[in-house]
Amino acid sequence: MRLQREDFEILKVIGRGAFGEVAVVKLKNSEKVFAMKILHKWEMLKRAEVSNHGDIWPYRMAQQKHPPP
Questions:
Q1: From edge to edge, which strands make up the β-sheet containing 33-39?
Q2: CA dist 7 → 10, 16, 41, 69 (Å)
Q3: Domain definitions of the chain by residue range
Q4: pLDDT at residue number 68
Q5: Which Gene Ontology terms cover its molecular function (predicted)?
Q6: How is domain 5-63 classified at the architecture level of CATH?
Q7: Is 37 annotated as belonging to a binding site?
Q8: Residue 56 region, left (φ>0) first, then alpha (ψ -120 to 50), else beta?
Q9: Which residues share a beta bridge with 38?
Q10: Helix, strand or coil, per DSSP, at residue 26
Q11: Do 17 and 40 touch, CB atoms closer than 8 A?
């Protein structure tokens, strides 16, 4: 089952950036709380940053260790 944005309740926005925001969310029908990065795709495309930096994100994510030591 793939989760969608609609599966979460936004509790509080904790940060905003050029391409979106970060919110504290709760999974509906659960007490689990997460941080969700919500990207505004249209804003990203308007600024044409995706073509310049689009291939860096997967590389950086692959380098991360979850959970951190």
A1: 8-16, 20-27, 33-39
A2: 10, 21, 19, 30
A3: 5-63
A4: 57
A5: ATP binding; protein serine/threonine kinase activity
A6: 2-Layer Sandwich (3.30)
A7: yes
A8: alpha
A9: 21
A10: strand
A11: no
Q: Which residues contact 30 (CB under 8 A, 6 or more apart)?
A: none
Question: What is the C-alpha separation between 15 and 42, in angstroms, rounded?
Answer: 19
Q: Which residue has the tokens 């995706």?
A: 50
Contact between 27 and 56 under an 8 Å Cβ cutoff? The reply is: no
Give the residue, 55 or 37, on which the prediction is more confident: 37
What is the C-alpha to C-alpha distance for residues 52 and 28, in angstroms, rounded to an integer? 36
> Quick one: tokens of 40?
């505004």
pLDDT level of residue 65 (50, 70, 90 thresholds)? low
Identity of residue 24: V
Tokens of 8: 């979460």
